[in-house]
Specification:
The protein is of the alpha+beta class. It has one domain. The chain contains six helices and two strands. Strand 1 and strand 2 form a beta hairpin. The longest helix has 22 residues. It starts with a helix and ends with a helix.
Length: 107
Amino acid sequence: MDSVISAFHLPDDVSLVSLYLTLNESGSFKGRTTLSKIGPSRIRSKIFLAAVSAGTHNPDIKAQKNRLLAAGGTKMQVLGAAMRKLIQICFGVIKNQTKYQSELALN
């Protein structure tokens, strides 16, 4: 178990479920950025639903959501950021073997 947990590195962990942005461009055409569709869609869909719920119930993600919306982000961009933060929280809890504590509660 320890070898599996120690094998995780946070920037790579998010890419395991393909939660990174891809830029749609070709020549002078610049399109919107979208979430990558490479990777397990079942996991991505479950994380999406968890991010929707966390946007109303988790104080860290709620604060991030409000901050990104105030900065002019779209709702889908904010959900993508919430999905990424949920993955980082999950891997942090597994790696450190501790209970999750809200960053806002610590400050």
